[in-house]
Design brief:
By secondary structure, the protein is mainly α. The chain is built from nine helices and no strands. It has helices at residues 6-27, 35-42, 46-53, 56-80, 85-99, 103-117, 126-142, 151-170, 175-191. The radius of gyration is 20 Å and the shape is elongated.
Length: 200
């Protein structure tokens, strides 16, 4: 049997641990998940977990970043499918809010995430999220569609509102009802940036 490249073996080990961690964190939550859950599920040792992620918190952060990347892809798809750049921003933001209805995202990103990793604005992905939204706002300003406000300031306010709305949904007794309220209110808020009404 041919010797497998080290990089391939490392990637496989990390992938197994990520999958096991994601399953545990998404079903029973961070507090109740143990390192033995991850290693037994992955068929690996605690040493492998420590080596690749430094422990439970490191694995959780890696899982959250993996999910965040998938969320960004879904937002980008929603934006690209829209008939106009303005509607793209609206659909991108709506997609983010609605993802808080996904049980796995609810628990890992919006419930356990802030409790384990602290303020979301300090997470490793925060700056890239702000940069992406700043670019979206700037493009709309170039088209003279929205008010001439500081693009980064607007982006940070939009991101903050999205995050808070999503945490509200994730922790609500009736997430579906709260999601519908949040989407309607957010869209009215977002329309406040427009220079004039748009038929989207």
């Amino acid at each position: 049997m041919a010797h497998r490249p080290r990089a391939e073996m490392i990637a496989e080990t990390r992938g197994k641990l990520l999958a096991a961690g994601r399953k545990a964190f998404g079903t029973i939550g961070y507090a109740d998940a143990s390192m033995d859950d991850f290693t037994a599920e992955a068929g690996l040792t605690r040493g492998a977990l420590y080596h690749h992620f430094g422990g439970k918190k490191g694995l959780f952060e890696a899982v959250l970043m993996q999910i965040d990347g998938e969320m960004s892809d879904r937002m980008e798809s929603a934006c690209e499918a829209a008939p106009s750049r303005w509607q793209g921003l609206v659909d991108e933001c709506t997609a983010y809010i609605q993802m808080a209805l996904d049980p796995e995202i609810q628990r890992i990103v919006f419930q356990d995430g802030p409790a384990v990793l602290g303020d979301p604005s300090s997470w490793p992905n925060a700056n890239s999220c702000v940069a992406m939204m700043t670019a979206s706002v700037a493009r709309l300003q170039e088209q003279d569609l929205i008010e001439d406000v500081d693009a980064e300031a607007a982006a940070r306010i939009i991101n903050g509102a999205l995050g808070y709305a999503s945490q509200w949904i994730a922790n609500a007794e009736d997430p579906q009802a709260v999601s519908e309220k949040a989407v309607r209110a957010f869209n009215v808020f977002l329309e406040g940036l427009l220079k004039s009404p748009i038929d989207a």
